[in-house]
Each structure stands twice: as C-alpha cells, then as structure tokens.
Amino acid sequence: MGEPDDTGATEVPWPLVWGQVATTVGGHLAAGRGHLVTRDTVRLATVLALQAVGVVPSRLTLDLPRPGVQGVVPLADLLLDGPGGTVLDLRLPWDAEPGRNTHTMGVLVRDLLRISTVPARQRWLVQVLATERMGHLASAAVRRGLPWPDRPGTRMLLDRQALDDLPPGAAAELAGGRWQLPVVVACAGVWPVSDDLGLHAYEVSVPLTGPKAAWAPREEPPRSSAGPGGVVLEPVPIPEQVLERARPVAPPSPRGTARAEVLEAVRALVTRQGHDVVHVADVLAHVRSSGSRFAEATVRTMLTQHMCAQVQGRGVASYDDLDQVDEQRYRLRPGR
Predict the structure, then answer these.
(1) Rounded to whole angstroms, how far apart are CA atoms 198 and 196?
(2) pLDDT of 27-48, one tens digit each?
C-alpha cells in the first residue's frame, strides 16, 4: 500500500496506521475496557494496523534494550526492519495526576529526548493524552516561548535554550541524564480516541550528524572548563532551515476543549453584534445551544477566570484571551 523506500522495503502509510490504532483503542474504551488498556494493548493494535497496510510480521521485533545495561525499561516498544530501521515507542500518559501539567510536560519531553538517542532511520513516539490537558501544556509552553507541537504540521526544536526555559516542574523530570541536543519534534497528526482523548503521533529526528551539545538540569553542578577532565560544551550550530521550521508560533486552542468552545462563542457573538464586548449570559447561552459537553460551571470558570487577562494566581491558566469590562461583560483582546 506504499512505494518502496531507499532500503527496498515498502514505505508505510503512517497516517493510516495511527488512525487505525486510535480507532482500535477508542473501541476498547467505548466497550468499557478502558481500565484494561495498557501499552501492550496499543502495541498489538499497532502490529495489526501495520499488517493491514502490508507490513508482514517478520519485519517487526519487540523492544529495544539499552546496550550493556540489564534490567532496565526498554528504550522502545517495537522495531520495524531491525536496529537502524524504524523505532516505535507507545505511551499512555492519560492517567497523569490531575492538575500536574508541568509534570506531564516533563514526562513527554523526557520520552522525546530518550527516543532521539536511538540510532534509527525513523523514530516515532505515540502518546494518548487528554485533549484539554494538551491545551494546557500548549498554553504553558507558549508562555515560555516554546512552540508545543499540539496539532498536525507544527514542530518543536529542543535545544539547550528550550530545555532551560522549561517550567521547574517539567525540568525536574529530566534529572539524572545528560541529553544530547538538538532534537526536532514534528507532530504528524492527532486522531480522536474518545470525546476527551486523542492519539498524538510525533516524528523525532536529530538534524545534525556532527558533535552534539549535552544538557543537564540547572540543579546539576556545572563541569569545569579547565583542568584535568574538564569539559567544554560549545553550542551546536543549527541549520537555518531547521530553525525556520521550528520558530515559536502561538497555536490556537485545540478543538474540543472548553476554551475552544468559549472562543468560538465569543467570536460568533462579536461578529453578530458588531462590537467586541460580550455578556457572560450570552456566551453561556451560545455554548449551550451548540450542544457543548461541558457543564455551565466549567464554561463560566473558563470565561471569567482562565481566559481573563486580569485574573492571575495559583491554579489559573492565564490564557489572556479577554479583558474584563465589568462584572458581567468581557472584551475580546486583539488578535484572539
């Protein structure tokens, strides 16, 4: 179902594969088997999806152990065409503790960095994640100047500056390792698994073949650049075309989130009324009439707290979409 690549093997239509995996996992959830779904479930779904597009099982092998280390978690879940071929790593972080968004960000970044260390022609990291949580991660990343790859076609450049700019809770998850940079992460697509879960497929690549820059969290004492055993870490030049593809771009709110529904309602009211001030009651009525799955209290909180530039504090997302005019009226900010 694909053209031969430069190795002579048939090129895999990956969007079809990931779409089928999302459908299979979604079927398990719809049938009440969500609590039984594990990484092994997703791995088998991937094997069957690959076989459906013409990949014979003999081309697949399980796991990729860390060289020279026994009893550790494998670096990847599946290999296609053996070492040096395509590496597939499958994750289910949907059960991350509620509210610990920066912790989740650190776990996802750590997985991306880990899979980048595997010598391979192609690397895939697939994660099933709550759509609303992904929206929170994207917003937190943008505030730090990091373009989070939460929608198809977006890319993220993980270099030393990007890792230094991670929130402390995310950076803490990278402790214990010295990561080789730079790494480019491209979102190949997002496929719905359920009403609130999506399968995110990332292609991970290392753009340079020369020496890399190592990185460790700031808490680790720096190595001296002088004296016996001293190490000097020089910045690695990044090709301009790679930088251009990874420039920070503030993504729109992911579809299916409470913020997205509020933004859609506000924009519709602004267009209909001819001015940029909206009343809370009108926004709630519009969201309700559109068949929203979110409770009215959730929508109100999103509108009056998380999306309001004047509301700050612990537990507030601070999206800066609206300015408060008075107790019941809000103004859509320019560019929103």
Answers:
(1) 7
(2) 998 999 988 988 899 999 999 9
The pTM score is: 0.60
Cα distances from 225 to residues 230, 233, 234, in angstroms, run 5, 8, 11
In the three-class reduction of DSSP (H, G, I as helix; E, B as strand; rest coil), residue 179 is classed as: strand
Helices (H), the chain: 14-30, 39-52, 101-116, 131-143, 160-164, 168-172, 240-245, 258-273, 280-289, 296-301
Is 266:252 a contact under the CB 8 Å cutoff? no
Interatomic CA distance for residues 290 and 283, integer angstroms: 11
- What is the Cβ-side half-sphere exposure of residue 160, based on CA atoms within 13 angstroms? 13
Query: Is it true that the peptide bond before 207 is cis, omega within 30 degrees of 0?
Result: no
CA distance 246 to 239: 11
* 230-267 per-position pLDDT tens digit: 334 344 444 455 444 444 443 444 446 788 889 889 98
Low-confidence stretches of the chain (pLDDT < 70) are 1-10, 64-75, 93-101, 177, 208-256, 313-318
Domain boundaries, the chain: 14-212, 258-332
Q: Give which of 72, 76, 74, 139 is closest to 105, Cα–Cα.
A: 139
Q: Contact at 8 Å (CB) between 64 and 75?
A: yes
CA of 264: how far to CAs of 99, 109, 303, in Å? 25, 30, 12
- In whole angstroms, give the CA distance from residue 268 to residue 274: 10
- Close Cβ partners of 70 (under 8 Å, ≥ 6 residues apart): none
Burial of 30 (0-12, 13-18, 19+ CB in 10 A): exposed
- Interhelix angle 131-143/101-116, rounded to 10 degrees, is 80
Alpha helices in 117-207 (DSSP H): 131-143, 160-164, 168-172
